[in-house]
Amino acid sequence: MRQPVRTRLPLFRRAFVDSWRSTLAWAAGLAAAAFLYLPLYPSIGGSEQMQEMVNALPAEMTRALNYDQIASGPGYTQATLFGLIGFLLLSIATVAWGAAAVGGDEESGQLELTLAHGVRRVQVVLERALALLLRVLLLAALVFVVISLLNGPSQLDIDAGNLFGAVVLFSGLGLLSGSAALCLGAVTGRRTYGLAAGAAVAVLGYVFNAVGRQSPDVDWLLSLSPYHWAYGNSPVANGADWAAAGWLWGLSAALVALAAVALERRDVGA
Amino acid sequence: MAIAVSARSLTKSFGRREVLHGVDFEVQAGSVFGVIGPNAAGKTTTMRCLLDIIRPTGGEVRVLGVDPRTGGPELRRRIGYLPGELFLEGRVTGRKLLSHYQAISGPVPPGRIDELAQRLGLDLDRHTRKLSKGNKQKLGLVQAFMHQPELLVLDEPTSGLDPLVQQEFHSMLREARQRGQTVFLSSHVLSEVQQTADTVAILRGGRIIAVESVAGLREGAVRHLRFTATGTAAADAVALLGTVPGAGNVEVLESNGTVTLSAVLEGPIQPLLQALGRLELTDLVLEEPDLEESVLKMYAGPGEGVR
Q1: ipTM surpasses cut 0.90
Q2: Cβ of A109 under 8 Å from any chain B Cβ?
């Protein structure tokens, strides 16, 4: 049977198009963060004084904030943008989107009507996950472009290949919290549980990294931290750990698959 | 005649709480089947089972010849569904929302959406979340009717609609029926079902306690009756009514010169008319049968004792 082109992926289209305002807002936030932080590098990160200040900080704090690498352009970008503000913004965005995608939609009562139409539940989960993926990719691409633009003027001296790898890891990290939120939302039908799961992945990942870096006694925490998988070797400076990227993306895909199976098997809106 | 929807021993439990205890019914294709019952009777749960939104715990359901569990999108494209509580929150216009639903339901004839919106008096260019409850309900009706599905499943379709729009909705139902579409609707008020349905099922506490044709319900229903006659004594008139089978609650309202009596009649009206023919009537009011009363009797009747 021939389907008109415009009816292809209808749920994806709706999920993506309906959230364009929010996508745009997060994009503006990320771009603003990059434009605020990165041009400061020559006067902060690269300066002797700053290095002295960082040295004066407690070593635990420096490690927790990843400021031990702040003296180089790639290290500065890694620590400030990818490690902190960008990570924060992207995580909040993906967790909110992920939790709303199925759990939030069910809680607000709208999923029932969608499922009463000619769609499969697996399709609902997959198309909405695809919309999440596309939004994350757009934000990541934006970060890549903005950093590339600022690379010269801000004297960051970042290798384009390394930057690409870092952006892949950055988006994988965002996807993982987002798909955790989507998954628990789909399993429970509650937006709040989705938010909690997504936030837990992001926050615990960050905390396990910060604590795990303090001493060899607790460095097992690092292996539990997606944040550390992604950023443990400072990808902006040293290139991506592609196995870590595989884990982040693979786990995200597995969570989406789990969400699809869970939704397929249960009552909706009961 | 073919059966469009059927349920046999349909049960549904949420955890340990069983909300449907073996529901049985059959809906003739091309008919309007109304389910009435108090809140929490299981109407919504039954409807959700028809659309595979909720899965039955036991029993057998057939919708348009298919089990909804296995019917998939192909089956649901042949159904139009209006949920009991309609939430439309997006920052989109009604038109955009409908074109989304159009993309995931059966084929919609061109111009059909505008035609329906016009009939119901719905502005499609307003954002859905700014719509009043009634207007959201209209939007819900449009999405259920627009692809002219073989089966309409409508949960409390007139809630929030003003009387004029209700009239329009009733005429949409009649047209659907003439076109051969089957309608399964629920309500907690009988008057609505009585105006539109061929058959009424009464669902109470997770069980169907009666399935009646509206005509049958009408026959067994209670009518209120009042008449005024001249040239007769009140006592004679009362005695005369006493001979009519099913007449009761006779009250004398007036008896100076003219006599005015009120009564209720349960049963056929022919014997009453014959009896009244012997009087000099100056006024006669025989009300529409009050199905509400007969149904309330059923609500209170079986089930209560069985427990």
Answers
A1: no
A2: yes
